[in-house]
Specification:
Length: 344
């Protein structure tokens, strides 16, 4: 009896320590175990009347299932981890979730150079010339509008992504933003897991998006799409297929009628996450264009300290469609910086 009471006291003290670490954003010396991670998640969502001992027993049972009798079948899932983070932040005040990667690359070098001829068509831009080196950053956020639609595992999301191309080293032009692309979108998402040819189909999305550079006259670029995204997972690998159909515009309103010749009708993404490192490979329109107007992007994010949200980031891009203003120009560049969130 005494030992049982002592055991409960020690476990409660450990629970208190974990809560303390969590509340003050203190970085503990070692990675949390499945049992400790369960405790933190239960604490965030637990009923105020729920005893600490009940939480401890629930997490012991959960950890035993994952690490004990069911150890052979338990498999780490990067998608499941991301979904749990999203779920824990649903409808929290003052909280916006990350959507696409959020990063800043202070140094980006384009070996091909940036063509300023389209800008030079404007009288005030006739002397414009761009540096091969610039800075780029992306901000991408999302929030759910409704969950459990039709009493099923369906979530309605909306998101906004802004990507900027900043000629910060170009003192001749007073360091302007060469281009900024804005993309609001809305989609339905289901996360029910199904097996498909040995892969686990985890996330499916059906949505619409508008992408524009917010400019007018000869610099205006925009398009609207309906898209479907399918994500498949196997061990540490995630495969994402995104297909889209552009909404046709009238010839007099279409600023870029041939954009699908360069952007294609879909993209394939491969994500590999292992040991706190994330590798991402994207390819689009290569096969569709006969390898003439496609694009390939490779990125790598990796830890650079104790903070899990602050990571080193390297991105390489070659091909067409890096930005809307350059959708029909070939770009070959590499960028270095930091990321606050990745795809997974």
């Amino acid at each position: 009896m005494v030992w049982d009471i002592f055991d409960i006291i020690m476990r409660s003290l450990k629970l208190f320590f974990l809560v303390f670490c969590f509340n003050v954003n203190f970085v503990c010396a070692e990675e949390l175990s499945a049992y400790e991670s369960c405790l933190l998640k239960k604490i965030q969502s637990a009923d105020v009347n729920k005893a600490a001992n009940e939480i401890i027993k629930e997490c012991e049972k959960s950890a035993h299932t994952k690490q004990g009798t069911d150890e052979k079948t338990y498999q780490y899932s990067a998608i499941e981890e991301r979904l749990e983070i999203d779920k824990s932040n649903e409808f929290k005040p003052f909280t916006l979730m990350a959507f696409k990667p959020n990063y800043i690359m202070p140094l980006v070098y384009n070996r091909s150079g940036y063509d300023a001829s389209v800008y030079q068509q404007l009288p005030e831009e006739q002397d414009s010339t761009f540096d091969n080196a610039e800075a780029q950053f992306q901000i991408s956020i999302k929030t759910p509008l409704a969950v459990n639609l039709f009493n099923k595992d369906i979530i309605l999301y909306t998101a906004y992504t802004s990507r900027s191309f900043w000629q910060v080293y170009n003192s001749r032009l007073s360091r302007p933003f060469r281009e900024t692309n804005h993309e609001p979108e809305i989609w339905l998402q289901t996360t029910r897991s199904t097996s498909f040819m040995g892969f686990d189909n985890r996330i499916n999305m059906l949505g619409v998006s508008h992408q524009s550079n917010g400019r007018s006259n000869v610099l205006s670029r925009s398009w609207n799409r309906i898209y479907a995204t399918f994500s498949f997972e196997k061990e540490s690998s995630v495969f994402v297929v995104k297909l889209w159909k552009r909404y046709d515009e009238s010839p007099e309103d279409d600023d870029n009628p041939d954009i699908t010749d360069y952007m294609g009708h879909g993209e394939f993404r491969y994500i590999y996450k292992k040991d706190s490192q994330t590798f991402n490979l994207m390819t689009r329109n290569n096969i569709e264009s006969g390898f003439e107007r496609g694009a390939t992007e490779l990125s790598w994010s990796f830890p650079i300290g104790k903070r899990k949200d602050l990571r080193g980031y390297i991105q390489v891009f070659t091909g067409y469609g890096e930005s809307l203003i350059d959708y029909n120009q070939s770009v070959n560049r590499i960028g270095f910086g930091i990321s606050l969130s990745d795809w997974l």
